[in-house]
Write a structure and sequence with these properties.
With about 250 residues, the protein is α+β, with helices and mostly antiparallel strands. It has nine helices and eleven strands. The protein has helices spanning about 5-15, 30-45, 95-110, 140-145, 145-150, 170-180, 185-190, 205-215, 240-250; strands at about 55, 60-65, 70-75, 80, 85-90, 95, 115-120, 125-135, 155-160, 225, 230-235. A five-stranded mixed sheet has the order 7-9-8-10-11. A four-stranded antiparallel sheet has the order 1-2-3-4, sandwiched between helices. Strands 5-6 form a two-stranded antiparallel sheet. Helix 6 (about 170-180) runs antiparallel to helix 7. The two termini are about 25 Å apart.
């Protein structure tokens, strides 16, 4: 968990411990009313840190609270806080993961299409994947070598930069140079082949992508985000990746 999220969660936990047990629960209200009251209470307890979402769960009296990509659960009276996964065993669905998948997609949707280096198939793309990638990562290079095969199968691949060494490092500046090249696709491919590319600077999304990757909890590259928001950590060969892409599309 990123340090900032850990601090936020600790603050939420401390504040919830101070929340009056009877301040929120009201059997005469609907679940939506109680969720609204819980949200208002959290806003007052933690100024400047409004939750992104407070929603009732299928369990009566239990609410899901989401701050960015951090999810936890509170009872309606604010007394009990649960950190963990909520799973529907009947439908075999991880409700926590589903919520996080939607949150990831919402974050990606805030980025303009022009801020990706994208490799598209001829004609209309059937699927789109977003990949956090490091130009110096061997497994990222293995995946990039298979992008033409993915394109032939109707998959558009759009890249976000995640130099694992962090900002102001050689990998970071190579990513900047790829973005600032006259032909971004060619420069990026050359970099992924281990070839030198001309140094260049300009306004670029590398730091923004890196920060977003931290929020996503990226720990290694490539990290692949499917079009339903599901995250695949690490390289997969084309056949296995295509199966995951199709499964995500079907869901």
């Amino acid at each position: 968990m990123p340090a900032a999220l850990a601090r936020l969660f600790a603050l939420i936990l401390a504040c919830c411990l101070l929340m009056p047990a009877a301040a929120l629960a009201d059997a005469g209200k609907t679940a939506a009313d109680n969720a609204k009251a819980l949200r208002q209470r959290l806003v007052k307890l933690i100024p400047g840190q409004a939750p992104d979402s407070v929603q009732p769960t299928p369990i009566p009296g239990l609410f899901q609270v989401r701050y960015g990509l951090k999810v936890f659960y509170l009872t309606g009276n604010g007394r009990y806080l649960i950190q963990g996964q909520l799973v529907d065993l009947k439908d075999r669905q991880n409700l926590t993961d589903t919520s996080l998948d939607k949150a990831r997609l919402s974050l990606l949707d805030t980025l303009p299409a022009s801020s990706f280096i994208e490799y598209r198939p001829k004609g209309k793309a059937r699927y789109t994947i977003s990949v956090f990638s490091d130009v110096d990562c061997p497994y990222c290079r293995a995946l990039h070598a298979e992008v033409p095969a993915l394109n032939r199968k109707g998959v558009a691949v759009r890249y976000l930069f995640f130099p694992r060494s962090g900002p102001d490092t050689p990998s970071y500046y190579t990513a900047v140079s790829a973005w600032c090249a006259k032909d971004r696709q060619t420069a990026f491919t050359r970099a992924m082949e281990g070839k030198a590319i001309p140094k260049a600077t300009c306004a670029n999304p590398v730091k923004r992508d890196f920060d977003l990757g931290v929020r996503f909890g990226v720990e290694g590259t490539p990290t692949i985000v499917l079009q339903n928001g599901q995250v695949l950590p690490g390289y997969l060969p084309v056949d296995k990746l295509m199966q995951a892409i199709k499964d995500a599309s079907a869901s």
